[in-house]
Design brief:
With 263 residues, the protein is of the alpha+beta class. Helices cover 16% and strands 34% of the residues.
Length: 263
């Protein structure tokens, strides 16, 4: 949602998912802003103190994203489907601590994508070191000496010999120091190692068949080839799905985008 918050809104000890629901409802109450998103009423049990000032003109989407980045954050998504009459329906999905299915290390139901003796047609695996930081500074509301400032560091990286990599982010609408600290802790845990993005292409009709997995689900990827002669076996999370129809007598293909997960 690119609509901006033009009326100050304050939440004190309110469930974080309730805040999101309120933000979406407020956005859809703006003239010509209602896009028909169905809003749930689920809660997470995690309460926050949050003020959104009108003069900041923060977008509703960035307000929701900021809350989701906290240590005790959540997942959100808008699911688009079609009703029986062919009309699109849009439903806000909120998941705490996350959307999608998770599995234990001994689970036999986790979808497995494997190369060479498996279902992976091709893959692309990359790390972006320019986006890594092991110390993060977050600033909140206030000015000069009265400005909120918290620091979060992943000491395991510097202890292992990593160079000091710093980043800073400003959240001028956050007045709750606890929320700001949780956001800093959550953010440094995400960026302290270069983000890994894995794309794999697989046929939709080979186990695990398309439809047995979805966005947010945990998946296992096993690869052994010339690049990884010793092989790697990792736990990943599906963050993107794209289905391509077959062309020139070729079968359909599903392209999955995955990233590492702590679960």
């Amino acid at each position: 949602m690119c609509l901006r918050i033009t009326t100050s809104q304050s939440y004190q000890s309110v469930d974080q998912l309730t805040v999101v629901q309120s933000l979406v409802n407020a956005a859809q109450a703006v003239p010509y802003g209602n896009i028909g998103v169905v809003v749930p009423t689920n809660t997470s049990g995690v309460t926050v103190n949050q003020i959104y000032y009108n003069y900041e003109l923060k977008t509703y989407f960035s307000a929701m994203s900021d809350l989701a980045k906290a240590t005790n954050g959540f997942d959100f998504n808008i699911k688009v489907a079609y009703d029986g009459g062919g009309n699109p329906t849009k439903t806000l999905q909120l998941g705490y601590p996350r959307l999608g299915n998770t599995y234990s290390s001994t689970s036999t139901t986790v979808p497995v994508f494997q190369l060479p003796a498996g279902n992976i047609v091709q893959y692309n695996y990359k790390e972006d070191g320019t986006k890594a930081a092991n110390t993060v500074y977050l600033t909140g509301a206030g000015s000069n000496e009265g400005k909120l400032l918290v620091t979060a560091t992943d000491a395991t990286k510097t202890a292992a010999g990593w160079a000091l990599l710093e980043d800073s982010v400003n959240y001028s609408n956050i007045t709750d120091s606890t929320l700001l600290t949780n956001m800093a802790t959550g953010q440094v845990s995400v960026v302290s190692y270069p983000p890994q993005t894995l794309q794999i292409v697989a046929p939709p009709y080979i186990d695990p068949v398309y439809g047995s997995y979805g966005l947010g689900d945990q998946a296992r990827v096993i690869v052994k080839d010339d690049f990884y002669p010793s092989g790697f076996d990792g736990n990943y999370r599906i963050i993107g799905l794209n289905v391509s129809p077959g062309e020139n007598n070729q079968p359909e293909r599903v392209t999955l985008t995955l990233t590492t997960t702590s679960n």
